[in-house]
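Fold these two proteins, one after the other.
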Amino acid sequence: MINYRYLTSKAITAGFILYWMVFWLFNGLDKFLNRSSIGGLTWFGKDRNWQFGVYLENLGISLDHVPAILTFAGLWELVLSVLFLSALNVMLVAGEREQDASDRLYVLALFISALTFIGFSAFDTVVGDRAELLEHSTYMVVIAVSYICMAVENMVKRQRDTGLPAVFAQTAPATKLKLNPVHTARQQDHRAVQTPAE
């Protein structure tokens, strides 16, 4: 059963997870479906065969490698989409009980996405496509914003749940448990000194 109260407290994070899931899903599918007819719909997409044909020609590499490159890139992007889908599934199904697991999956997917865009940017530089380089660099900013929003939401939720300032909410319970035994021992020593000897 979906915990809507918890989901509301993580609405921005859930939105970013959904965004990245759809982003990688459709980019991956585009490597296989562009310029193809799906029932009454034509998936136009971007002609990656021509684009990568130009890249490989400029690099002096045989154009026979284009299908293999696009297949690998498409499968990689679909795997990334599944990672974000897994994070969203844990968030929706397990809710607050598995928040750490959902956040870890989300951060892992963001990290792999960042590595992917770094690889894309390096390739863009080698082939001299500055427009693609700018586009892929912009997505790095979106990844940073996605992570920061998750961190801020977690801090706000922690503050709401504990009633303490967000920066202290995580450490306060542990500190309290650590100091209580010492404080109790000092009180007992103090009482023993004040008790008259019989």
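Now the second one:
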Amino acid sequence: MRSRRAGHAMRVPRETGRQAVRRRAAPALAAVLTVVAGLSARSVLDGAAGKYAGDTLYALLIFWLVLVVAPRTRGWVAAAVALGVSTAVELFQLTGIPAALGAHSALARLVLGTTFNAPDLPFYAVGAALGWTLAGAAGALSRARSGGLTENAGR
């Protein structure tokens, strides 16, 4: 892979398989923990608290999945994608298609929801921002432990 800087070609070292797995491991674990937290929140918390905690964790899950699929993605980009996807899914509910799919599949109901609810939208932003914040903190901790190596996730 080559990048241009000040008219000179610069060689960017390729990541080894082990490095790629390590880079994906933390967001993958975070995604699993987020699913567990989301399912727990909906069963433990009542009413609006459970619903909006679930919305926040939904966007957070998408944030982690972006980093699993594209681990070199900057945190703000992953947050923007998480917010965009969450919002798109919420708006998709206006079509009635997710409700129809949800009537036949619990998985579709969990992933797509069933009913548009505008108050969900700010909680998606909270989840995306939470992901960016957590990834930034993890990146800072990783850099401090390894003596200054950089991570993109928190930027």
